[in-house]
Structure formats: C-alpha cells, structure tokens
C-alpha cells in the first residue's frame, strides 16, 4: 500500500522501561528509524557525532532554535537537547516510521507541530514495581526516590493526553503491543495515498471507467 | 488494563475475502465475538436460530425497527436483515470486541449510531484477481461479472471513509494486520478507564496522594 511514514512518540516515567521495550521492538521491526537528537553537552568517550547525538555549540544550537529547525527542544542540567526536523522529514518522506523517546513536555511540543504523529505512553506495571526499579538502579536517598515517584505519578496522569497506553507488565507482551500499534497505524486510511492504491489495484484491467459506475449504486 | 469493548466493522467488495480473513483472525483471537443478525428470511436446513440468525416474522422485525432495536438494517431480495443492538451492547459492556461483516450502507448507518466503532475496509489484491475469484465461484454471465466488478469498484472508492484499509494480497498477512488493529485499538487511551487503570497501578502504595504533587511539575 502507498503509505506516508509517521512519527511515533514514546513517553513514560523513568523506570517504566522505555529503552528495553524499544530494544525489543527494534528486533521485531528492523526497519524503524530512531531519531537522533542534537545537544550542546560535550561528546563522551564511545559516543559518535551523528549516531548518538549531533553535537553542537551553544551558538549553533541557538541559531537552529531561531531558524525553527527543531521539532522540540529543552534544557536539562545546563545543556540543550533538541530534535532536528530535517532528518525526521526525510525519513517520513521515504515512508519510514520514526521513533522518538521523549518526555511529556517534549511530546506536547511535538503534538502542536505534528498532530498527526502517534503518541504512545508506557506505564509501569505498578508503583511498587516502579519503586523497586528506581531503587535498583540508583543510590538515591529515600527522599530522592520519593520525589522521583511523585514525579512519576504526575507524569502518569498525563498519559490520558496520549493516543495509546501500554502497561509494561511483561516485556515481550508490551513490545508486541507497540509493534501492533505500528502495524495498525500503517493501515490507516488517512495516512495512505488511497487514490494511488486504487489505481494500483485497478491497474491495466480496463474493465472499469469512472463514467461506468452502475446507476444502482 | 480496564478497557471498554469495541465494535469492529469489516467491509469490502464481494470476493475481497472477508470470510476467509475473519476465519483466520478467529484462530488468532479466539475471544472475538461475532454479531448475529436478525432476518425475516426462512430458516434453512442446518441453520440454527440464535447461532446463524435470529429468525423473525415480518411483523416482529418491523416492531423492532420501530422500537429502534437495530443498529442497522436493510432489505435484500425481499427479506429484511438487521443487527440487534442489545447483544452488541451486552458484549461491549463485558469489554469484548464484537466483529461485524457488513456492507458500506450498513457501515454508514453504524457510523451514525456508534461513531466510536472501528471501521476496517478489506481490499482485493488487484481487480484482475477479484475478477478471477468472482468467475471461479459463480456461473454468472460475462455481463453479470462485469456488473459485479463495476459494483466492486464503486465500493472500493468508499474505502476512504474507513479508519483502516487492508489489502488482502496474502491471507495470513492480511489476518495479522487485522489482529494488529484489534490489539492496537485495545490500547487506545480514549477507550480505557484511565483513572481506574491509574488506581490499579498506584494501588496500596500510599507513597503518593493527590495533594502531594511536586510543585516543580
């Protein structure tokens, strides 16, 4: 089917498992494209410009913000991070599905500029499990964990703004659901070039012409 | 996840393969519910009231039409056919997915009464293949086949009114797409009881209360 590509946004609280679910989906859908962000933070060892991030100076970043070249951008801990529009547009024009893992504020910016994107929210199985995961991967104080859990709850409430919600209670099941969303969204009539598709189906048949419709229909 | 059920409408021209695709999906999703129509045509041998159709007299059917008890109804070849709302509502209330194979006019009636239903259109791989299938299964004259192909083309154009379109070029692939649409639509936030879901996730945790949101969020 003739299809335009689409942008798939994945959000969810820290600890919900966005990266592991995306890794599992990448295996199921090898043709997904992952958006590469631009950042002003310094390049770390093992990181590669253009693969992990596009590394920019603060001036370069600011110029691109002013030129409207970012789909969304934000500042964290003194560094700027942004999503360059041009690469996403190129991939979408090729009919590809571009995946972006961004936070709720970023997703809201995207929704304003690209309302036709597909918004998916990943939920932890339970808050108790989320707490376990957060404690497992950091040496934060009880107070810091409590703050992060409260942030997570506020984020969970924003899930209602999304198109789809997936509860990550079992990794492969969650990945299968995300894969199903991608397959389903590829079948969307509003995203297809329906008239081109019909031409393809009708082909050289020649039996039928536009003026030839039955009066009874 | 707490989910309301939904109604899935499948339409497509005669010969597109709706029944074979539905049979394949039934194997993949054994918990689907199939809507049983009411009809005024006589019960045939091997048919069972309540399984194949609800067999009604013309008076009974007319009374139900007047009482608004059908989701949609139509007359074909002197007999009336209709979809009783009550069984669909019962299944949806239980969170089930109800599948209906109906024509475009019927689907339009459903869209007016249940705009939240999911509308899927099944396309033949090509018109040449559709012609082959139509010739294979009937002894119609060339003129009759030509009329049916013209009807099919007019129907194909209506596919643009649907949410999803699936081209039935390979049975299992088409069935997998329909299954993906069902899985994806089950993840729809607008169909979920999102607040109930959040309660379930937050559970007995007690760490978090509504008044306890971080001011920074």
Description of the structure:
By secondary structure, the first copy, chain A, is an alpha/beta fold. The first copy, chain A, folds into two domains: 1-32 and 96-194, 3-Layer(aba) Sandwich (Rossmann fold), CATH 3.40.50; 36-94, Guanylate Kinase phosphate binding domain (2-Layer Sandwich). Chain A is 42% helix and 19% strand. The first copy, chain A, has a five-stranded parallel sheet with strand order 2-7-1-8-9, with helices on both faces. A four-stranded mixed sheet of chain A has the order 4-3-6-5. The longest helix of chain A is centred in the last third of the chain and has 17 residues, at 142-158. Chain A is globular. Residues 206-217 of chain A have low confidence and may be disordered.
Topology:
Two copies of one chain form a homodimer.
Chain A: E1 6-11, H1 18-28, E2 33-34, E3 37-39, E4 53-55, H2 58-66, E5 70-76, E6 79-84, H3 85-93, E7 97-101, H4 104-113, E8 118-123, H5 127-137, H6 142-158, E9 164-167, H7 171-186, H8 194-202
Parallel strand pairs in A: 1-7, 1-8, 2-7, 3-4, 8-9
Antiparallel strand pairs in A: 3-6, 5-6
Helix pairs in contact in A: 1-7, 5-6
């Amino acid at each position: 089917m003739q299809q335009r590509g689409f942008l798939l946004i994945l959000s969810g609280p820290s600890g919900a498992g966005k990266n592991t679910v995306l890794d599992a989906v990448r295996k199921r859908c090898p043709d997904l494209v992952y958006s590469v962000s631009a950042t002003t933070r310094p390049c770390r060892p093992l990181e590669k410009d253009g693969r992990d991030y596009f590394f920019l100076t603060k001036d370069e970043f600011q110029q691109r913000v002013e030129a409207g070249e970012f789909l969304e951008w934000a500042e964290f801990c003194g560094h700027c991070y942004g999503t360059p529009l041009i690469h996403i547009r190129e991939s979408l024009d090729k009919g590809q599905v571009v995946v972006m893992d961004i936070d709720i504020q970023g997703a809201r910016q995207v929704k304003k500029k690209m309302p036709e994107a597909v918004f998916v929210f990943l939920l932890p199985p339970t808050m108790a499990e989320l707490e376990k995961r957060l404690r497992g991967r950091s040496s934060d104080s009880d107070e810091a964990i409590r703050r992060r859990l409260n942030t997570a709850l506020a984020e969970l409430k924003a899930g209602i703004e999304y198109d789809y919600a997936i509860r990550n209670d079992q990794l492969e099941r969650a990945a299968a659901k995300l894969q199903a969303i991608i397959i389903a969204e590829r079948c969307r009539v509003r995203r297809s070039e329906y008239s081109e598709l019909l031409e393809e189906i009708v082909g050289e048949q020649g039996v039928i012409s536009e003026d030839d419709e039955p009066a009874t229909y």
